[in-house]
Each structure stands twice: as C-alpha cells, then as structure tokens.
Amino acid sequence: MDEGAGTGQEPAPADAALKGLCPRCGANTLFRSYLAFADRCRACGLDFSAFNVGDGPVVFLTLGIGTIVTILALILELAAEPPFWLHALLWIPLTLALVIVSLRYTKALLLALEYKNAAREGRLRRDT
After folding, report:
1. 82: helix, coil or strand?
2. Integer CA distances (angstroms), 66 to 22, 92, 94, 112, 116, in order
3. pLDDT at 127
4. Which residue has the higher pLDDT, 9 or 29?
5. Do 52 and 34 contact (CB within 8 A), yes or no?
6. Which of 71, 65, 54 is nearest to 99 (CA)?
7. CA 3-6-10 angle, 5° bins
8. 80-127, pLDDT tens digit by residue?
C-alpha cells in the first residue's frame, strides 16, 4: 500500500494502531515520526490534532511495565544475587525500550478508539 493511499474502508482500531493507519481511510499516515502524530491525514484530510490522546498512556505503561520489570528483578535477585551493576545494565534499558515501543501502539490505539466511538469532551448539561 502506498503511504498516501488508503483502502477506503475504516480499519479495525487494533490494525490502525499496529500499522499506523488513519482510522478513517486506512492510509499509512498516522505518524510523522516514531511517536508524534501527523497533523492530518494526507489521504483523506482527517485532523489528528483534534483528538485528545494526551499523556495518559505514558503513566499506565510506566506503572504496568515497571511492575513487571520489578518482579523480574526481584526473581533474578533472589535466584542468583547478581551485582547491582548487572541489574542496572539489564532493567533500565529494558524498561525504557518496552515503554517506548509500546507507547506508539497505545497512543495510536487510543486515537483510533476515540475516532471509532466519536468520543468528545464531556459537557455538563444545565437544566434551567
């Protein structure tokens, strides 16, 4: 598929997230760099900046991956008692890599789900 050519059908949110596809037309135009969204789709014109993905995924990924890495580090410590430098050499790069790699997918998934469900900011209804 060409970078600017979409399929004409809305991709599933998981497909859009994995492949960096526009949630409207399926063109490979969602990202302008590894983690930064493009301003809009070059194929269909969907304005990606209108979506509010924010930094929410970073917090949950860091906490979730941090928990997993901490458990693995404790298991290694109890089983082999390696020196501290080996822990630092293993777990710091692994944590950073897992967060950065998974952040692209989760940001794209949130944007695709927001598009699919037509999610918008909440508003208070005032009865007068």
Report:
1. coil
2. 30, 10, 10, 26, 30
3. 61
4. 29
5. no
6. 65
7. 135
8. 999 999 999 999 999 999 988 899 999 999 999 999 988 766 666 766
Q: Shortest CA distance to 41 belongs to which of 63, 16, 18, 13?
A: 16
User: Is the pLDDT at 42 greater than 90, yes or no?
Assistant: yes
User: Residue 30: which of 108, 110, 99 has the closest Cα?
Assistant: 108
Between the CA of residue 28 and those of 7, 22, 40, 58, 59, what are the distances in Å?
A: 10, 6, 12, 23, 27
Q: Say which residues have a Cβ less than 8 Å from residue 3's Cβ, sequence separation at least 6.
A: 27, 28, 29, 42
Closest CA to 11 of 126, 109, 128: 109
What tokens were used for 34?
């590894």
Query: Taking all residues of the chain, what is their mean pLDDT, rounded to a whole number?
Result: 87
